[in-house]
Design brief:
Blueprint (H helix, E strand, L loop, with lengths): L1 E4 L7 H12 L17 H10 L1 E7 L2 E11 L2 E9 L8 H15 L4 E7 L3 H9 L3 E6 L9 E7 L2
Length: 156
């Protein structure tokens, strides 16, 4: 498996969108509000990759994972971490996380930050195993209840 930086000439936006939607499909009917992944298009993914730092994991010529990173004051935000369902649990997420840690160091940022939906306890546990700690609870616009938690990992 190789991890590549997604650049302007990537050209596999339809495949990338399919990867994200398939890996986020288990959330449908579980989280409220629905995942923002449903609003993505190949064009918006290309713009997102232009505006952020994006990586894709390839295995045997197929996309099996991706991560989008956005520098913020004091941290590097991890978004759209997606692993193809058939490839989950095989270390691809950890490999992409290592790339994110390297990117944080290269950008002089001392922490990684992410948000995960309150209903996704399995994700909370996975991120905790990867060294993230809960730092905040948030609500999406229009909601009075907590809809997501924020987690951070300090980079040493």
């Amino acid at each position: 498996m190789e991890i590549i930086r997604i650049s302007e000439d990537f050209g596999r936006w339809d495949e990338l969108l399919a990867l994200i939607l398939s890996s986020f499909a288990y959330m449908d009917g579980v989280i409220d509000p629905p995942s923002s992944a449903h609003r993505l298009t190949p064009a918006s993914l290309a713009q997102k990759a232009h505006d952020e730092i994006a990586f894709a994991a390839n295995k045997d010529g197929r996309l099996v994972g991706c991560i989008f990173l956005k520098p913020e004051p004091g941290s590097l935000y991890l978004g759209k971490l997606a692993i193809a369902p058939a490839h989950q649990g095989k270390g691809i997420g950890r490999r992409l996380l290592a790339v994110a840690e390297d990117a944080a160091k290269e950008n002089g940022l001392p922490a990684l930050r992410l948000e995960t939906r309150i209903e996704l306890a399995g994700n909370h546990a996975t991120f905790a195993r990867w060294g993230f700690t809960k730092t905040a609870e948030n609500s999406h616009p229009g909601f009075t209840r907590v809809t997501s938690i924020e987690m951070q990992k300090r980079i040493t």
